[in-house]
Amino acid sequence: MLQLSYIRENKEDVLKRLAIKNFKDAENIINSIIELDNNRKSAQRLADDVKAEANGLAKQIGELMKSGKKEEAETLKAKTADLKGKEKEFDETLKTIEQDIHKILVTVPNLPNITVPVGKTPEDNEVVNEHGAIPTLHAGATPHWELTTKYDLIDFELGVKLTGAGFPVYKGKGARLQRALINYFLDKATSKGYNEVQPPILVNADSGYGTGQLPDKEGQMYHCQVDDLYLIPTAEVPITNMYRDVILKESDLPIKNCGYTPCFRREAGSYGKDVRGLNRLHQFDKVEIVQIAHPDKSYEILENMREFVSSLLQELELPYRTLKLCGGDMSFGSALTYDLEVWSAAQGRWLEVSSVSNFETFQTNRLKCRYKDANGKTQLAHSLNGSALALPRIVASLLENNQTEAGIKIPKVLVPYTGFDMIN
RNA sequence: GGAGAAAUGGCAGAGUGGUCGAUUGCGGCAGUCUUGAAAACUGUUGAACCGUGAGGUUCCUGGGGUUCGAAUCCCUAUUUCUCCGCCA
């Protein structure tokens, strides 16, 4: 959620940057926010004045009662009756206006960083770098959904029987590979100073609002209606919400957490060939890194996080490229996002495996995650997160890229975790 | 699931209808002392909104109510604790 004061004071800048995100009808929406805010101010003034008067009278009545001047007190009491009605009325007006502002404000996306490329579709994303040689496969090489069957690593049909499409069952070396990747990712993250946490994978609505999944992506989360809890679409939600309503010390920053969780996404509206095999699942595993940062340091930290994720892909010997997302392809809450994509050799295309974003104050404003600066003033911190990494597409490209006629080779760094160096 | 108790500032813990945004202690910050640190002493120390300012308003778990006036009384939700039951 954007800060009202920023919108008020930087209207032109807000409009300019919302345009980069292709936010429709921005001018009307911003104007109505500013107008409502002006109404709010005058409404509060009225309400405050009435209350001040009522408070003053109540105090006088108290003093009169004490000194035994009952009659005088009664005359004053009569005067307060009128104020009471007004107080209620003004309070309600103020509340309504505040709700109206909030309702609109939560629909406005974050302002993109000034360096974000203009564009509408994924084709407009800027390729920052490409790393690693594209492998040439032997004749008869197949996509991962055939390899997983051939070596009995993942049973998609069995998942359909148990739950439905997009809930695969990992088996044998397939299951072991999952566990190996999770442990490897967590070990790398903790060695870089990230504190490992194991959060709940169901969260309440407050947490959903805190990180911006609600109300923007309501339909994308699984919702347990009986208890009004949501299955997390990413560990970002619980881990970032740990800092909801918290005032940190400046010296605490940056705070670095990582965590493994399963992630659940309804993926309403997705279909077609892109969803085959491991490409798009309803349940998948991911290790997430999250930082709460000082505003002056957040972009430096974003680069560090991107480099960390890159280093994982390099160690796994997977060809990858880095994209700087254009305004149209960025998520609702992000100010700047890098996507990292691995090359899927048998499918012949890039697969997104990580998204690293700086949210600046967009999440922390809603979260009320602040720190005290050197002058003792409370300031909003910046929040950042990134996947490090999401498993399914890593597995897909590992299987496809490393397939040989003799079997699938496991990258060296993973062997201590898997306990085998070949799937055959 | 049943019965009872409780929820106050970063933490601990007073406060049972008016002068309480809230005693006190710890912690934090600043100063005195010290070569420096510790100790001791002194001062200071919650958040949000409105206002150029003086100042005003709101917040004692959330929501509602009683009252001229609520941290304090009532209702309700949530959470925590204790006992019983059940259970990985």
Shape: elongated
Largest sheet: 8 strands, mixed
What CATH calls the topology of the largest domain is BirA Bifunctional Protein, domain 2
Number of helices: 13
> Could you tell me the mean pLDDT?
92
Just name the CATH architecture of the largest domain: 2-Layer Sandwich
CA-atom Rg in angstroms: 27 Å
Would you tell me the structural class of the helices and strands? alpha+beta
* Terminal CA distance: 51 Å
Count of folded domains: 2
* CATH homolog superfamily of the largest domain: Bira Bifunctional Protein, Domain 2
CATH top-level class of the largest domain = Alpha Beta
> Which sequence of strands runs across the widest sheet?
1-11-12-13-16-10-9-4
DSSP summary, beta strand count: 19
Instruction: Classify the oligomer.
Output: single chain
Share of residues in helices = 40-55%
Low-confidence stretches: none
Please report which band the strand proportion falls in: under 5%, 5-15%, 15-25%, 25-35%, 35-45% or over 45%: 15-25%
Describe the model.
By secondary structure, this protein is of the alpha+beta class. It contains 13 helices and 19 strands. It has an 8-stranded mixed beta sheet with strand order 1-11-12-13-16-10-9-4. Strands 5-7-6 form a 3-stranded antiparallel beta sheet. Strand 6 (223-224) and strand 7 (229-231) form a beta hairpin. Helix 3 (26-66) packs antiparallel against helix 4 (70-105) and helix 5 (144-150) crosses helix 12 (391-401). The model has no long low-confidence stretch (mean pLDDT 92). The structure holds one RNA strand of 88 nucleotides.
